[in-house]
């Protein structure tokens, strides 16, 4: 085995069912007493559910902010921070998908308060020290240990109502992170072990969720697999896959999880290709970027952006090959081995 370096990111993770009832104890462990609940307008029922748990307890709910949206615009973060200050909140609790967790990370860093994350989709944001934001349409990224949530609660019960379609795209999103971690320059045996286990768990459980949305064991297995995939991304460098998805998401305004899903199709290698195409057929998820709203005339622009300010890739990239990859993802073609590097 080659010499390698692995840096652990300390945080508290609680995994299981019925864990939302432990919310009070976790808030107290952070030495907080007045949380601000964060969610999106579409899923404000989740913040209402958590507010119900806090009602009548020693923890006083400072308030709720249901304005989280994709790509974490800085103007939304500023509004949430202002809300936190007005309500005298001493911590934030994010409940929902990656957009909400991302807002929680942004508010936590800007206001200097603890962040307790309660993810309900198979996102990755809660496991990474990375904060991606959008300011006037421009994507910015920063990283640091303080960005990580202090506590993460994975309560499978809260994920039972998530539609199979959302599980599918966010699950493939998580798998894509694990695949990217395997070819990252700083991959090591620990990350590789997480990646393979995470991919296996999701590949087995996602079709079961589509077949039976009420299957709790499948939901739990998928939740666990997504956690492992998230740890891969949090412990490795981002490369071509993320550059493509940041290009499509931040510059062209496409959905985060669905762009990760579609872009993943063209990045598969070796024997995994047949299995990946078979899995996507079973899941019935969107496979073409054009179905997500990307225009054909945006292909050249996307290729140019992807070639600029490149992330840390294993080898140098070729513009024509990157354009062809994006074109195939745009048209929804099956995955195949492609020559992308010099």
UniProtKB/TrEMBL annotation:
* Database matches in Pfam families: ADH_Fe_C, Fe-ADH
Keyword field contains Protease: no
Limits of the Alcohol dehydrogenase iron-type/glycerol dehydrogenase GldA domain: 10-155
Q: Which organism is this protein's natural source?
A: Cochliobolus heterostrophus (strain C5 / ATCC 48332 / race O) (Southern corn leaf blight fungus)
User: What name is this protein filed under?
Assistant: Uncharacterized protein
Which UniProt keywords are listed?
NAD, Oxidoreductase
- Drop me one GO molecular function for this one: metal ion binding
The chain positions of domain Fe-containing alcohol dehydrogenase-like C-terminal read 170-260, 267-330
